[in-house]
Write a structure and sequence with these properties.
Bound molecules: adenosine monophosphate
Number of domains: 4
CATH superfamily of the largest domain: ATPase, nucleotide binding domain
Shape: globular
Largest sheet: 6 strands, mixed
Distance between the termini: 49 Å
Number of strands: 28
Helix content: 25-40%
Number of helices: 16
CATH class of the largest domain: Alpha Beta
CATH architecture of the largest domain: 2-Layer Sandwich
Length: about 700
């Protein structure tokens, strides 16, 4: 099995990690961050932006920049509350009652999972760059309290991103894996996970590498965003009272308010009061209007007591279902950025009388756990075993609209359960099976995961036919349902579709589209690379010609100099033509290779000229000269010329040689912009520009001057 990465797909930020040498490592993004903002956007030129780049345009381009998408994953329009819908971009309900995100820049609307797929794609691409090999599979974490539809849609997002989703793993379970994978202890642990948009709590027993999830509970519509919104409302209400204007109706103002609110919230985790300054937030009759205020921690806490209350029930329920009392818990592991809020930590202390464990990084622990799970799947990590549970009860609708539970919540998975049902009317030829998930007794109060029909039941009095309905939950927590008529043996089986998302056909079309786009993107990138390489080589050839003229005079190596000049002109002409869009890139590539060859000839000629001029000692000096170019940056070059800092003499300053390859001719790596061959802006005199005489008689003839 190839490399599998672990992905924490968060509401606010996402993280990717991998197991290296048996230890999980977080992989930095291409932009250098250890977390990637879960934001997707399109620039005005329709370019897809993901992560930090998308986050940067949140305020300036709010209608085309999409954050908090996880809140919409696997949810139908009817399930969304007011809070979820107050985003600066447009979401709408399509004819099938599904959520669609509207993007004016591309004039398209997207299923939330399509956009989420772009985040996954970026994460695996960054991981592939780090690992030096493409990544094709991942363990993706989801809130433990995600229902089947939300899990299915997360898996679909993985498929749309072109990766195999080897396992859907519950976030608190992942955190527990990270917490306990290298400890050989017996502990009862409560994982309290409050992220940007979801809340989970799980109770586990960890014993010598066996992770037994005992119970899990949570709220998939509660997270740090709700705390932000309280501050937004506080600011907007005060502004409305003063100026009669509702800032929440202006997308840009709303985005600025949201960012300022989140910043203030985070600062209040460390200080007692924080200033909030939003100049030019609106324009009134008398000119620009500003917000200048201060928010105290006490006041902030006073804005959200009900949010804190919503944390209580899931913790109590998880404890009750696990069979442990609060006093039985040995450790509380805090996960998710929102657990940094002092009011949240206080609340946790009142529920479990323990100082929460501080040994895990709440932002990274879930991805690390996912990487550990990936290690278990590949066999890299042995002696670890994970037994998870299903978070919500599963059943079907029976007569009178009552839900009959087949698999109660917190049943260990994988699991298979079945039961017998019958018809409610005489000669009924078909039954409809409506699959439900939730804890309420009436079917209509629970989440409908989908329905299917078993037909062809032979005529019989009411209650006589026997239909066996089986529920299978796999290790991902994904459900498969089948119904069999025991008389005829006729069977109908379905994998439950999210009900609120893309159909299999939609997914197939989108995957094909993405593959086609990927080929197109690759081709575009290769064209750009070719063009850039040609330009870099042109600059180098120009320099080399100048250097050759200095060293051997304009006619000293005439044949080779002429060859470079001619080849150079060809490439320059083709680049100019190419800019007008009228050139075949293959032709450019051919000209580039001819120029490379000509340069190689010139370099060889210069080398042999010098060898003829110099004794054997000079040859050694030349080699050292080229070493010097390899090892030192611009600043170091100056020092090299000063005898006191000669790096070869004793007492010189210490340095770490960069990865080093032997002195080499200019092609082909020479023009790829290695440290010593970097391009400088025209007209800027580099400190490495040598005085005319120095150079050839003591340095590497091919090093850039
Ligand atoms: P996560 O989903 O774990 O990345 O958590 C993101 C949430 O944590 C966002 O709502 C952040 O605003 C919140 N967060 C991060 N740092 C802090 C902090 N120091 N204080 C309060 N909330 C924070």
């Amino acid at each position: 099995m190839g490399r599998i990465v672990g992905i924490d797909l968060g509401t606010t930020n996402s993280v990717v990690a991998v197991l290296e040498g048996g230890r999980p490592q977080v992989i930095a993004s291409a932009e250098g961050g250890r977390t990637t903002p879960s934001v997707v956007g399109f620039s005005r030129e329709q370019e897809l932006l993901v992560g930090q780049l998308a986050r940067r345009q949140l305020v300036l381009n709010p209608r085309n920049t999409f954050a908090n998408l996880k809140r919409f994953v696997g949810r139908s329009w009817d399930e969304l509350d007011e809070g979820s819908l107050s985003v600066p971009y447009t979401v709408r309900c399509n004819d099938a009652g599904n959520v669609r995100v509207v993007c004016p820049a591309t004039e398209r609307e997207y299923a939330p999972e399509e956009l989420v797929a772009s985040i996954l794609r970026k994460l695996v691409d960054d991981a592939g760059t780090y690992l030096g090999e493409p990544v094709e599979a991942a363990v993706i974490t989801v809130p433990a309290y995600f229902n089947d539809a939300q899990r299915q849609v997360t898996r679909d997002a993985g498929r749309l991103a072109g990766i195999r989703v080897e396992r859907i793993l519950n976030e608190p379970t992942a955190a527990a894996l990270a917490y306990g994978f290298d400890r050989s202890v017996v502990k009862r642990v409560l994982v309290f996970d409050l992220g940007g948009g979801t809340f989970d709590v799980s109770v586990l027993r960890i014993a010598n590498g066996v992770f037994d999830v005992k119970a899990t509970s949570g709220d998939t519509q509660l997270g740090g965003n709700d705390w932000d919104r309280r501050i937004v409302d506080w600011l907007a209400d005060a502004f409305q009272a003063d100026h009669g204007m509702d800032l929440r109706r202006d997308r840009q103002a709303l985005q600025r308010l949201t960012e300022a609110a989140e910043k203030a919230k985070q600062e209040l985790s460390g200080v007692q009061s924080t200033p909030i300054s939003l100049p030019f937030i609106a324009t009134g009759g008398d000119g620009p209007l500003h917000i200048e205020t201060t928010l105290e921690r006490r006041r902030f806490e006073g804005l959200c007591p009900d949010l804190l209350d919503r944390l209580l029930r899931p913790v109590q329920r998880a404890l009750r279902d696990s069979g442990f009392a609060a006093e039985d818990i040995d450790d509380v592991v805090l996960v998710g950025g929102s657990t940094r809020m002092p009011m949240v930590q206080e609340m946790v202390r009142t529920l479990v009388p323990l100082e929460p464990c501080q040994s895990v990084n709440p932002d990274e622990v879930v991805a690390i756990g996912a990487a550990v799970q990936a290690g278990i799947l590949t066999g890299e990590l042995r002696d670890l075993m994970l037994n998870d549970v299903t978070p919500l009860s599963l059943g079907l609708e029976t007569i009178g609209g009552v839900m009959k539970v087949l698999i109660p919540r917190n049943t260990p998975i994988p699991v298979r359960k079945s039961d017998l049902f019958s018809t409610s009317e005489a000669n009924q030829s078909s039954v409809e099976v409506q699959v439900l998930q939730g804890e309420r007794s009436m079917a209509s109060d629970n989440k409908s995961l989908g329905r299917f029909r078993l037909s062809g039941i032979p005529p019989a009095p009411r209650g006589v036919p026997q239909v066996q309905v089986s529920f299978d939950i796999d290790a991902n927590g994904l459900l498969q349902v089948s119904a069999t008529d025991r008389t005829t043996g006729r069977q109908q089986s379905v994998t439950i579709q999210g009900g609120s998302n893309l159909s299999e056909e939609d997914i197939a079309v989108l995957i094909a589209e993405a593959e086609q786009k990927a080929t197109e993107d690759r081709r575009k990138r290769a064209d750009i690379d070719r063009r850039n390489r040609a330009q870099t080589l042109v600059a180098q050839a120009e320099r080399r010609l100048r250097d050759a003229a200095l060293e051997v005079g304009p006619y000293g190596a005439e044949r080779q100099q002429r060859a470079v000049e001619l080849a150079l002109r060809d490439v320059q002409d083709l680049i100019a033509e190419e800019a007008r869009g009228s050139v075949d890139l293959a032709e450019l590539e051919l000209a580039v290779s001819q120029l490379q060859e000509a340069l190689y000839g010139l370099n060889r000629r210069l080398l042999s000229e010098r060898k003829a001029d110099q004794g054997p000692l000079q040859g050694l000096k030349n080699t050292l000269g080229s070493l010097k170019d390899e090892l030192f940056s611009d600043d170091e070059w100056d020092d090299w010329d000063r005898p006191s800092s000669d790096p070869w003499s004793t007492g010189s300053r210490r340095y770490t040689p960069p990865p080093y390859s032997a002195p080499r001719p200019l092609e082909p790596s020479g023009y790829q912009g290695s440290g010593s061959d970097r391009e400088r802006p025209r007209g800027v005199v580099s400190r490495r520009e040598p005085p005319p005489r120095r150079g050839w008689d003591e340095g590497d003839p091919w090093a850039e001057r």
